[in-house]
Amino acid sequence: MGYEQPLVNSVTFTGDIGIIGASVVPINNHATGLFVKGGVKFYFSPDYTMDGMKRFNDFQGAYFNPQIIYSGFGFDYSGNSSSGYGDKRGVNNSFALMLQLGKQWILAKTISLELYGGMGYGWSSIYAPDYFSGYGSYDLNYLVPYKYSHLQVSNTIPFALDAGFKIGILLK
Asked: Which domain holds residue 88?
């Protein structure tokens, strides 16, 4: 679920919140948690109507969106301990600073369609007790590289990616 509020001409505040695990499709690792995204959209190359060259809508056009993301969830993994081998529960807390580019269209002054993609810095803290991969790697990000809000492969190379498609309804 997201919200976008105009601040000044060509600048809006945007925020998203998502529930991880609330799905009709089963998730492999039974992940449950939430993610939060927040940022400011700076619209450039605004779309204008041809009638008097007036701006069509504050929410329409190409934009640049620096964004802060938090994702926290629990997940299942197979672990090995003195009590035996079996499913264990781990916890992931991730942060990302993303720089996104996108394009948003307003249809019939009611519906918004948006395409976006971005990259940035990502960091994760993963707690997975009794996990032993056998490969000698201590970076647990390969257990859950997809953070449900962004993709981050490693803390060693803290590179994060994000892309998506959104459909929204304008309330005013």
From this structure: 2-169
Burial class of 30 by CB neighbour count within 10 A (0 to 12, 13 to 18, 19+): middle
Alpha carbon distance 145, 156 (integer Å): 13
**Which residue bears the tokens 């089963």?**
26
Residue 153 identity: V
Instruction: Count CB neighbours of 75 within 10 A.
Output: 22
pLDDT 10s digits, 137-163: 566 777 788 888 999 888 888 999 999
Q: How many domains does the chain have?
A: 1
pLDDT in tens, 71-108: 999 988 876 655 555 678 889 999 999 999 999 988 88
